[in-house]
Amino acid sequence: MDASAHIDDLGGFIQASPSSYHAAAEVARRLTEAGYAALDETADWREAVRPGARLVLVRDGAVIALALPGQVGSATPFRILGAHTDSPTFKLKPRPALASNGWLQAAVEVYGGPIIASWFDRELELAGRLVTRDGTTHLVRTGPFARIPHLAIHLDREVNTSFAPDRQRDVQPIFAVDGPDVLTHLAQLAGVSAAEIIGHDVVTVDTAAPARFGASRSLFAAPRLDNLSSVHAGLTALLGFEGGDAVAVLAAFDHEELGSESRSGASGPMLADVLERVAAAVEIDLHRSIPASWCLSADAGHAVHPNRPDKHDPTHRPAAGGGPLLKVNANQRYTTDALGSALWARTCEAAGVPWQPFVSNNAVPCGSTIGPLTATRIGIPTLDVGTPLLSMHSARELCHVDDPAYLRAATELFFAGAA
């Protein structure tokens, strides 16, 4: 396992994936270049889905890829890595043109749960999709374009003791003092008329390049590590996958940061639809297959914060560089149980990968993942894992360079069903 090469590739993947739509497109691009065939949801799949097939399907900002074994039986199981393509950010409002006191601005609303203060005084990119009157989708990105400016300390002497930005007043980014409005600029980049744009899903992202740093260059900072670190682990594991007895699946959903309730989210029908159609095409009996299958819900988790260790459980202290987390919660905010714990321990041991149990401090309620949603909708045994981070939901997050490669190595063995 070459952690250095893996982290460099992760950095390139992140730079190619400023929005969920770009991330899904980049996954599909890499897989089709490796021989995966693109599936069309409106087509008959019976010709495409066959033993040994490699397939990929994009729905909006979500993507599902499958690698079928060479021999398929009625009880062939699925090994699924579930992740998500979206991150907390700001999203353009339907009418994004805004101006104030000589500044041109972009009208945005808060998407998910970002650490809002971390977005100030950064060069931001706008990225996402435009839809024209004829229904055509255009992916677009601006490069460094906008900035949410702080009020100078001379105008707010309490900024270092009481900074609590107003979610409406304080977060509208500036991008110019003259020129076209934001939607016209995006249309020009896409090569279409602004009058033809009748829909858009466009978000902000930090434009600073992913970077290794620190005394031994063992730290890695980038936007969207939550949760492109997991999407990339699943993608690269599929690209390195040489086959096994199960159907290997990468399911990267959109809208997890909003609760996953969309047609491309984990609460929607996408994964169930794909599994049913694939199973029908190769005569897998899902009632027999699903109980023998596993879903690895992979989403970033928390390393112990050195300045606030009191926020973490005193007996579970995940460390950066200590390997992926096995996330456990007594109230099933994470789905891991004893059977899942045993599977993860066997998988990591066989892959030569260290791993770390994670539970939340009882006084600090944890978030959740796509794990409970997938287990509930599909009925598939599920466990929750993830790369340990600092600064989760910041505009720019931090991990150890070894941990994403550890997750990839464990995922590849998980796909093979070797443990």
TrEMBL record:
GO terms for molecular function: aminopeptidase activity. It comes from the Bacteria. Its EC number is 3.4.11.-. Residues 305-325 are annotated as: Disordered. Keywords: Aminopeptidase, Hydrolase, Metal-binding, Metalloprotease, Protease, Zinc. Pfam families: Peptidase_M18. InterPro entries: Peptidase_M18, Peptidase_M18_dom2. It is an enzyme of class 3 (hydrolase). Residues 307-316 have a biased composition (Basic and acidic residues). Its cofactor is Zn(2+). Belongs to the peptidase M18 family. PANTHER family: ASPARTYL AMINOPEPTIDASE. This is M18 family aminopeptidase.
